Batch of 4 targets.
Target 1
Amino acid sequence: MPRPKFSAAGSARGSPASSPVPASPPSPPERQRLPHPAALFPAGDAALKAPGMRQRGAPRPRGAQRGGAAPGGGRGAGAWPGLPQPSRGSMAVSAAAAPAAEPLRSIFKKFLVMLCSLLMSLYVFYCLADRCQTLPGPIIAAGAASEEDEGGGGEFLGGSAELPPWQAAAARRKRLLQRLKQRRRRQEAAPGAEEPAGGGGSRAGGSGGGAGTAGTLALLLGEGSKRLPQAIIIGVKKGGTRALLEFLRVHPDVRAVGAEPHFFDRNYERGLAWYRELMPRTLEGQITMEKTPSYFVTKEAPARISSMSKGTKLIVVVRDPVTRAISDYTQTLSKKPDIPTFESLTFKNRTTGLIDTSWSAIQIGIYAKHLENWLLHFPLGQILFVSGERLIRDPAGELGRVQDFLGLKRIITDKHFYFNKTKGFPCLKKAEGSSKPHCLGKTKGRTHPDIDQEVVQRLRDFYRPFNMKFYQMTGQDFGWD
């Protein structure tokens, strides 16, 4: 038979209750205390590790993923219960991003280092090349050299007339510093006084201390002006014009074109604007110069130069006409070895002894004849005659005369020269833009061929009356007879 069901009071269902018994409220459940992990995992700390997790320092199993994942991927068997586990895709992304970030950082650091190194190298090179200031570079006349171009195409003390940019910039900076020092000394000696004409390299038309500083700043900014030359070396060929020009370029107040422009004899139709563009930039108070020895024997040159400026100062370097003619022939012989002998070119008829004055080497040495043409356009006081022989024996003395003639302070002295016994003429201890000694190029100091002494004597007899007239015209005895 079925067992009777009792109610919560203990009586069976369906039986009438004798008396209702109030039910007591249930007692709150007791707080359960969790056992200590050590009791649950008697194996020690190793038991706390989830299955599949390796001990610190232990090698990772092949194929295992970072973060305790099972080798098969997904949630490992030892994942902590109740914690969200990363999906297989997120774990792959994080695992790939971590090693990928390291090379990117390394590449970025290397790029920064390389960029900084490149910038520093460019800056150092820029400064070593003396390009931190914007001084104008030397402007050299273009075109090939001619026979009149002594040294060949603007060649000067040991090299090309156009200096490398860093040498030219260093020379210009040195000149500017010298001028600034001179002006500061004068200002300290006489504050507020005007700069005397001719003092410290200044001439009429020069600037005072404040204006000079502004002019220096303008030149540093590349704002120097190109002007037509105030002085020209007009001759003579093979007389020493190249040496004189290079010696003068040591002076801080002289700027000169390296090559021979040949404007007043060959390029006059190009105009004065073209001629001015050949000139270097100068400050006020500096002299612009050029040299073309063929001007002295060109009939049109005196009138053309006078039309440009009647105040142009002219310099003529003269030499014993016999020695000059032999030197002229030697230069031509080096370029054309098949030319006739000097003796055959000198005489129209060797038997009669008639000199051939149509030969340029002979004609150039008749100085008195050419000077007459120049005195028609320029006063004698505006022409300086430099002895080529004294320029070799006493370069500082002749340069002193030239500096006085140009209104320059005597800066070029004996300390700038030394005598080269091999070449037989003086050289500069420090040329413009260089700290090393330099002599004229290999085209200078050629060995002259042996000439019959009878021919030499006949030439001296021929030139003697012309030399005497030249002495009278210039008021100087050059001692050639």
Target 2
Amino acid sequence: MPNCPRCAKSFRTANGVTFHLQQPRTACHLWEREQISFSGDPTLEDADALALRSPNWDAEQTDGHFEVPNPEDVDYDVPEIREREKPVEGTEASVPTTYAGHLCRGEQFEGAAIVYRIGDTFLRRFDMDRHSFHRQTNMYYPFANLGDWEMANFLLQSNLSMREIDNYLSLSMTKKMPLSFWTAKELRGHIEDLPKGPCWKIRIVPTHHPTTSPVELYWRDPLECIEALFNHPFYAGKMDYSPFRMFTAAGRIMRVYSEWMSSDRAWELQVKVPAGSMLCGVILSSDKTNVTNVCGGKVAHPLLISLANIRMNVRNKASSHAFLLTALMPIVEFIHPVPRIHSVLEARLFHACLDLILEPLKKAAQLGWMMADPLGNETLRQLGSICCDPDDVEAYFDACARFRLSGVSHPFWHNWPLSDPHRFLTPECLHHWHRMSWDHDVKWCRRALGAGELDFRFSLLPPITGLRQFKSGITKLKQVGGRTQRDVQRYLVVVIAGAAHPNVIAVVRALMDFRYLAQAPAITEEGCENIAVALAEFHRYKHAIIDGGLRRGDQSGLHWEIPKLELLQSVVPSIPQVGSVLQWSADTTEHAHIEVVKDPASRTNNKDYSAQICRHLDRVEKCRMFDTAVRLRGTTEVGFSSSAIECDEDRSDGEVGYAVDDADEAGAAVLNDLWAPKQSSSNYFDIAAKHVASTALSSFPLRTFMRGSTAFHLNLRPSLRRLSVDSAAEKFAIPDLRSALGDYLALHSCHGRRIRPFGRTRQSAQDTPLPFEYLQIWYKVRIQQRDYHDRTSTASTYTIHAEPPNGHWKYGRYDAAILQVDEGHDWPDSGLTGHAVVEVRLIMRPRPPRGMNVTWANHFLVYVRRLDIINVELATHLPVLKRAVRASGSYFGDVFPLDQISSFAHVVPRFGETANKRLTYMNACHASQSFYLNRYFDKDFFYATNR
């Protein structure tokens, strides 16, 4: 157990020790000041201060990552810890992750990220503010009390203008409140007294060529931004501090790449830095975004920064606020007689501004935050070989053309050790893959089928609750974003199946396999090989696109010179170097533009956008930090006062530790309340676990339950509360329902709750008597599964419908599912082996006679019809299904427990070369006898069936 370094009290966790040392009412609060200082040795003082700021930096930017120079050429003022072990061998460690449900064996880099001493934590910095003296008596200073602060926070976070705030504060009802401010100006004045984060600066950037307006750069220190992220309590336990390697088995044969710290590059960099150092991967993202929506044409160019050490499942959530705005790049118009030179001058200005903004990070590398040899790189050698004056922009641009360079003479990374575009520019899903799919794959399919046929086929697809339905097709869509592009990818292969040439289908399908495989959050070495195979298959069949005239090309003729296609070649080599490519997607940063640019701009007076955006963000961040600090401080104060620490000498050490742990848990709850998503999706696994643990159940059997990796949720009230068996058979068109129920009850009485196989001969007669007469019937059930790669997380929730004919659905709505039929094969590890594809026709529960208590009445049942897999189509790699029939010609159906269903399935009719014009999405499945099992509607379903 960790102990307090002063009083030696035991605590459950290291966080408990930290909370204990931070409490002003404890004698241990001054422990740090009592430590022996490094007086008389300024080297050690500087090194200790360096260690407190943040870990070492990775100076090779891989989508914002930076690499370091060689340790022999840089003198580091870092305290000597001990002799370096052999880091390449690594240390056995329990790396907290799994791959596809199996615990991975891992090794962690030994001697990395050593803690020198207790540093300035988030709350300690809050206590060191210039107004901390006033907060000893009033935690909410400069506000009077909690209510005063909550009102101020609400007004500042709202969309109200200053005039509207003044009008609100002038109301007679509001004047009765004991507020410390009565105007919007006074309110903003109070905000200026709150603890500050990274401060904004403005600088006029000089240029060699005239511009229509001064070049104003708004920025803040990126090192302070990184330190603010690293220091924030919300990310505690959500960051990786040292490189690690994961393997799928104890034999360490198959590597698994996921987080950046699991990559080979992070391990190599850690070898080069001093013992005890820690790598911090810096992520930079820059893209222009519109500020005005309708008119005006105002554009902003934000530069976002984040920390690669934060785990991807946290960093890529917009609610985590893991991306901070570190600069607003200037957007100016140059005055030059040659229009094509304008873009060259803009690129030079962009690099000059980046060089200025990132100077603190470069200095950190030079002062010893990381060690590595400055090595030359290909781009800089090409620039050095150009014998031309860079100030002669036109001549220099022409000289750069033969190297395919942009004309920038001093790129921002030219004095950054071991930095080169081929290293710090990683593959990116949103613009490289999804946009390419829309710009190229969809156009090929449109020309192969025709716009009308393609749209009609999309309109016939059976709808999936929660996903977009393209009732009018896709060729006339406007302003197509990343979400729509991904939704189109779910159906594109199954839509063109049977209509386009097989080789054309193989091209589209191979690219789809490539995208899906490469988007996995954890990728093994075998997965890298599969990605390479998919890309090679595309190149094998791509001639069909040219032969069919589906790629028109430009005036230079037909060719495959597509930049996004060329970028696909770097995906497999990048995975071992930077980890899973999914974490570098621009989805999060694009969404962050709303928070850091668009929303602040909407609250301005439409003048001087940059300055007002920075002021607004400064106020919002102060409020957010202050709210976090006072709520955490209030939690710890209450926890420690209730436990009477230091006042009750009769308490044991363990009891004190438990009190601190309670405060730790309460602090985590506060952080989740402030920073976690406000509207998270339902976790039916947690709900089911709570129901099982509860002693007072409102309904039995439970409406939310789970089995294996699947959770089920039914509405509390059934759609039909009381319907006879014969009426249900007629309403749902199931003539053998009574005999199927009879067979189920007979097997249940003999074998109990075992997994039932599919295909048994019917034993019960059509008029067999049943121990019940009525059924409760539900029209839908929600299915939720564990994430394929991380079984501690939940995946998307899908709804299985089993509705009888009604006014909208003339033939009813019956969705498909995956049913487990072999007890030795579990979903998703076994894929379709040991499972059957079925059509769910009825969701029910027998109603026993009053007063009868029988086990079969405590289970929900389903009547399903089997869809047999005939073959797997070569071009699409999709299983071809056909309705199973008995010897009598009737459909092959049977009754099973509901929890024998493993997954939702998307079954699409085979339309042939031309879809029947009489079909609609409401009757297409009813009129079809042959189907495709769509493997692409969900990534987790794709991974499970890709075997």
Target 3
Amino acid sequence: MAYNLPCVQSFTEHKSKHTENKSSINYAGRYVKDLSEEELLDLEELNLVLDGLGPRFKDWSGREPLPIDADLLPSLVEGYKRPFRLLPYGTRPGLRDKEMTFIRRTARTMPPHFALGRNRDLQGLAVAMAKLWERSAIAKIAIKRGVHNTRNERMAEELKRLTGGTIVSRNKDYIVFYRGNDFLPPNVTKTLTKAQELSINRQEDEDKAREKASTFIDLTTKNAVKGPLVAGTLAETMAATSRWGSGPDSEEIERMRRESAVARHTSLVKLLENKLALAKGKIKKAERVLAKVQEYLRPAQLPTDLETLTDEERFSLRKIGLSMKPYLELGRRGVFDGTVENMHLHWKYRELVKIMVERKSFAQVKHVAISLEAESGGVLVSVDKTTKGYAIIVYRGKNYERPKEIRPKNLLTRRKALARAIELQRREALKYHILELSKRIEKLKSELEDMKMIDEVDEETLRSRIEDDLGSESESDSDDRHETAEDEEAYLETYQHGE
């Protein structure tokens, strides 16, 4: 039996709506049956927030709650403006790596808020995202599947331009936005805009008051002055000279120039002294680090019962070693455990090993050759200078027995050897830098004394003297280097033809 009364019809409509909502809640319960009470409350609150943003996407195949269908939101909004942003004092404009990682992990387990299928005209979505950011710091957008010509890159650029948010992650399925550290809620933006408008109005009032006062002052001064004041006239010049005095003389100008030159030189000396103190502190630090690394180095000594070679054997072994194609290259690390290991690996297949070394002086090469002989247990045959550097040839010996551990424990590892080489290079460079700074400081101090004692000497003559002294020093250094090179060649000849 049907009742056509209006009260009965309204009751049936209300009951049907209530049953529909109840069925949707039960449908959502299939997905959230394993969640706790707090998580269920969060989902209900999110559902209420999404209800106030726009229509839902009913074809959503993922978990509840249903996201907002962003394609049904208005494409253009009249009077739309980008959200007002202001960075609070003491906060970073961007996110740190840890914060970005935390937001990405949080967004990974979060249900999407919007479902989007178009690339442009997203002002309605931007307004909804700004409303969502009042309650949540993250806005997650799902890209609709099966929609043609969707490009997540264009979507992300358009939304970033409209909202000013930070793109946290973007892939073919989702786009995640962070509202930013400079995002402000609408209540705060209203108060700030009002305060800004008030300050602008006050500034305009002050400008108007200044204009009125300036016009009044101009009128009073025009009435007070009898004749016009013209700039550049003789009367103005005479008045200025009588008030401020005449200009400086030539002697005073020279004195001022000399004083400025002396002050400039003293400031340069102070700067160089500060650099010298800084370099000395750095060299002390390098020595401390080098001492820590050197603690792990325990070099072996030469054995007393070395195997002797005749002149004929040494000559033939040297000739064979120089003609060998395989060789080991000793780099900046010097002699470490890996070098000795490679020597034993070479001796497994041949009696000789050739090691190429690039060093500046022969004394360094000689020290490397003696250390290789002591650490490996072989016999040093010769040290020759070639086009590629110095060649060290080591013979394994007639009674060679391969040790159980071919990598010695008393030498540095590869990493520590590199650290030692870097600190040595730093120390040598700092020593040279300190020497150059000390020389330059002495030159500048002597120049200052000459400038204070003799007034007639100019800066150009003193600089020319310094340049001449530096040129003579460079020539003497080149002569010393030439002499040391000749001594090395002579020592090489005696070492090759000796014994």
Target 4
Amino acid sequence: MAAGLMVSASTGALNSLLGKLTTLMGEEFARLKNLRKEVKFIRDELIGMKDALEGLSFLYELDPQTKRWRDIVRDMSYDIEDIIDDFMQNIGENNKITGVVSNTVRRLKTSRARHRIAGQIEDIKKLVLETSLRRERYKLDIPPQRNVFIDSRVATLYENAANLVGVEGLATEYVNWLNDEEKQLKVLSIVGFGGLGKTTLANEVYRRLKGVFEGSAFVSVSQKPNVQKLLGNLLSQLGTEPSIHDCESHLLDKLREHLQAKRYLIIIDDIWDVHAWAVLKCSFPENDLGSRIITTTRIQEVARACCFHQHGHILEMKPLSNEDSRRLFYNRIFGSEVACPHHLEDVSVEILEKCGGLPLAIISISSMLASSGSNQKERWKDVLDSLGSGTNLTLDGIRKILNLSYKDLLPHLKTCLLYIGMYPEDYTIDRSNLELQWIAEGFVSRANGQDMEKVARNYFNELVNRSLIQPVAFDMQGSVTQCKVHDMMLDLILLKSAEENFLTILDGSQVFTRSEYKVRRLSIRVNEASIGGTILPRNISMSQVRSVMYFGSSENQNTPPLSMFKFLRVLFIDLNEAIVDLTGLCKLYQLRYLWISCTVCSYQLPTQIRSLQHLETLSLPNLYSLPSDIVHLPRLMHLDVDFNSVLPDGIGNMKSLRHLGYFDFERNTLDNIRGLGQLTNLRYLALACGHLPHDRERRMDALCSSLGKLCSLEVLLVNATHLTPNVCIDGLKILSPPTTPYRLERLLMPNPHFFRVPSWMRVLRNLGHLECRVNELLKDGVGILSELPFLANLDLMIQNVTNEMIVIYGKGGFPALKRFELRLSSASYLTFEEGAMPMLQRLKLVFNASGTGTTGIEHLLALEELLAGIGCANAEESDMTSIESALRSAINMHPSNPRVGINFWNYNLTFVE
């Protein structure tokens, strides 16, 4: 595909199609003059249609005739692209890297081939002509484009817009109410209109309290809950993995048994009916240990049902006050409540009146204005006028506000946002998966030779900055790694998707019938009421579908055969119980993305998948045996396999790979370890290691040699297998200086360990995040780490009992460190000198209760938060009091009075004597 081509909700496949028609007009088809002439006519007509559709995408309202013509053009573009793809596939490809058809014209000279392509081109021409005539017949005039004010800056990393304005006081009040001496079970039920901040409040209370309970968990229920999955999720968060064979009643019994002797904190978010609560509450024993439950709901009846005894309390969320509304609005746009320009104060007050004190509405509008970067009063007045009359504390009012934010997006961002509608309500979406799906669908531009993954990241970050999607997890660099969509935003997304015929959801609650427009993207919610053959009747064509996603569980049900989806680009399967039918996978020659995660699913990949020449992403975390010809997929960039998988020989051929995990260092062949060094495009590599076989030294030398050649590597993860959790990897070293400076930014080794900090780490000059274990941390080890100029996040675990002082000197070391977590046997062996770690904001110490505590914390001048996790199984009450007093005294001496969080655990951490 040529650079810069895209598929979008507004223009369908026209951009992509025009590039392919240009290919058919190239030199390789020069001898087929009639073909080139007809193709040129079709292309010129489609260019005009594309321009018209782009103009329509900026209009707020379309008359029915114009809307119908738009839908027909868009649908037609997909059909024509499918025909062209089929033609190109049939005549063959020579250049597998670019995908450009480069076969000789010889195969087209046979009368049968000429007749077939001539007939196809004639059909396309008739279709295009009819569509053009329809526009003239209906006298459809495309109005000039509306001037939409969009932030033209490159999207930046997420900034936390949804601060806790209006929540701080409530959070403190209910933290105190919940964390009292009362031994009976207490339930707090938060009720209120959507978008008032119920989940935000519950999250903040949970964040503050979870460390003082023996067990804690947070789950979201949603309108159509899978109770069995919810119960399994609760068990997992509480530290007990459910069996794949557990039914609902078994899970309830296991939860009760697990919680019976524990003081627990459980958050049940977004409950929609009394029945769901009636089932879930059976798993929570009233054990008189001071346990607590928080629920959130929009429905008063549900809130009353949750507070089923005298120790229940209903909190009705109210809209923000005028003062808090202004704080939230101005902080999001200007970073400060007092920074609003004088000429915008009056219009700000009017906008806030329309928002009715609803945080979701305020954040949506303020994020849109912040992204535009405009302080022109006219721009703000336009926004005010678009909000209509009256306040908007109604479902229609909120939808109008969210719709304004949607309309303010450029077409490519609208398309990416609509695609999120493929995921179920309250589903936690992995950012990387979503971005790769956008790329596979053709939503991401490759203009000006830009890296498509970085462009997709910009798209994602811009949607976050506009508060259209909500972050739920971050990495240590502050990047969002997982997100969700507010259910009110999801409602709007699904409404727009239906209007645009963008995607179709099947959940067994409706009968699937023929539609006027073809299904292009399909999200299938599998449950006991839905069987594959029933959901997708054979008499309705599905060959044109571009994406298929499966969610849910349905024991012993078959997924529909893949042969139904001839032009599929994206296949995403997240099922708990089902039989996944991959028959016909090898015929999906347009497939770009394949991700399968099944808990109790039966599936088998074909033994040969070499025909998937366009495949870019392959993620099979539960499959051990891989096809031998996987090494011959020329465009494969992301490969995720199971921890214990063995890759076939020849991985050095996979030159396009950018992401590889896991590569089992113990199980793969020596040739494959050497072959790693040929994957010079690798950005991410995850290694699994255990107790190495007899040729340990040769393997380690080969690995070190290969790592030294990976000049593009940014992230290296080294994990021990579950069978050998404490393997020593002292042999892992850099054998010689690289030919180019190391780009490595993150080195994560949470399980294996070194004897001491290896000296070769000082060459990692770009390292920003280091996580590793060492037997002992001596002065030279501290010195090596302190010299790393960009190290911002450091996690160190010392395995042996510490018996020598660890001194953090104040002579220019650790110039960029912002977060430091240290696990050691006794905090009294750690001291910070004056001037140490000048940028450190967050310090977490994990140790056993002994000694007098860490000294010199007051020298960490940038410190904002001190956290301590203390093992105290054998400690006296006086020891615990002494340690807590020492930590708080150190903070009291600190000029900035940082936040403090201290957790005492009823067990001891293990260290080697």
